[in-house]
Amino acid sequence: MENQNDGRLPLLGMSLTELQSLTARMGEAKFRGQQLADWLYKRQVTEFSQMANLPAPFRARLQEQYTVGRELPLSSVTSKDGTRKYLFPAGSARTIETAMIPDADRRTLCISCQVGCRMGCAFCATGKQPWGGNLSTQSIVNQTISVDESSSLTNIVLMGMGEPMDNIDSVLAALTVLTAPWGLAMSPRRITVSTVGLKAGLQRFLNESECHLAVSLHTPFDDERDELMPANHAFRIEELLSLLRRYNWWGQRKLSFEYVVLARQNDTPRHAEALAQLLRGIPCLVNLIGYHPHPASPFQRPSQVTLIQMRDHLNDLGINTTIRTSRGMDIGAACGLLSRTQRIP
């Protein structure tokens, strides 16, 4: 693998237009940009020497000025349920985590978009680690094509470390690479992006992407959400729902609400009834997620009976609700547990 820290820019993550502009600046024909895109995203090579249809002098000049941009995982660990967690380098001697979740014929990759997270949600392990900055488009795309299961992935979720709407430029650019015909050509209906609800980034995402949206809600009451999720101070629940109601969720694009259930905190019939009232008229799915305790948090996991009662109550009130199965808990890969402070020697 090439040295990623020697000042050369990575090609991975660039759009077709950017690659064509690059080849033009280097005095090459426009079609060379398409060839580069094919090698990066279709054939997913790791070295310029593998780009056999490019002239050797051009490959040599590329080698001098750029890197391919591929970075393999530093390590991985597999859960007893088949979930696999990967550790990737993230610059400045920091690392990020990526989780692959198998389920029957599905292979879902949960990718990260930041090193840490600035949202400070009270129950989440990622936000407890030092902030390390936004990931580049290259780093986001690299997670997708550098895991062992890359060729068999069926779905991608941006629900790993970080808040996608807080890194919206890189996230939208990565989504373009993932879905464009010249890129990985995945259907946007196979990709879900999660958010706590940052207004500016969310508006851009809704207008510029066709991928599914998952909103982390966790309580129907602003005062409680203020405590659990500080981002709520800037964008209240009713404002968030008012924005979402402007868009069409009746077609193929789907909207879901993630609801981490905290024992004796947000799991009462009062919460279910207020939530149903808030979401009435919005075609959506509510995912109940039993909290995954970690040492830095005071919260506890609810009983399975409580989860089932809350699910059934919401369904009786007309809100399509499921309980998300916890995966990878034994390797710290479950929802809210991704957290990496390890530094590369």
Automatic annotation (TrEMBL):
S-adenosyl-L-methionine binds at residues 162-163, 194, 216-218, 292. GO terms for cellular component: cytoplasm. GO terms for biological process: rRNA base methylation; tRNA methylation. GO terms for molecular function: 4 iron, 4 sulfur cluster binding; metal ion binding; rRNA (adenine(2503)-C2-)-methyltransferase activity; rRNA binding; tRNA (adenine(37)-C2)-methyltransferase activity; tRNA binding. The keyword Metal-binding applies. It is found in: Cytoplasm. Binds 1 [4Fe-4S] cluster. The cluster is coordinated with 3 cysteines and an exchangeable S-adenosyl-L-methionine. Residues 103-324 form the Radical SAM core domain. Pfam families: Radical_SAM (PF04055), RlmN_N (PF21016). CDD domains: Radical_SAM. Keywords: 4Fe-4S, Cytoplasm, Disulfide bond, Iron, Iron-sulfur, Metal-binding, Methyltransferase, rRNA processing, S-adenosyl-L-methionine, Transferase, tRNA processing. It catalyses: adenosine(2503) in 23S rRNA + 2 reduced [2Fe-2S]-[ferredoxin] + 2 S-adenosyl-L-methionine = 2-methyladenosine(2503) in 23S rRNA + 5'-deoxyadenosine + L-methionine + 2 oxidized [2Fe-2S]-[ferredoxin] + S-adenosyl-L-homocysteine; adenosine(37) in tRNA + 2 reduced [2Fe-2S]-[ferredoxin] + 2 S-adenosyl-L-methionine = 2-methyladenosine(37) in tRNA + 5'-deoxyadenosine + L-methionine + 2 oxidized [2Fe-2S]-[ferredoxin] + S-adenosyl-L-homocysteine. It is an enzyme of class 2 (transferase). Its EC number is 2.1.1.192. Its main location: cytoplasm. [4Fe-4S] cluster binds at residues 117, 121, 124. SUPFAM superfamilies: Radical SAM enzymes. Belongs to the radical SAM superfamily. RlmN family. Reaction proceeds by a ping-pong mechanism involving intermediate methylation of a conserved cysteine residue. NCBIfam families: rRNA_mod_RlmN. This is Probable dual-specificity RNA methyltransferase RlmN. It comes from Candidatus [Bacteroides] periocalifornicus. The gene is rlmN.
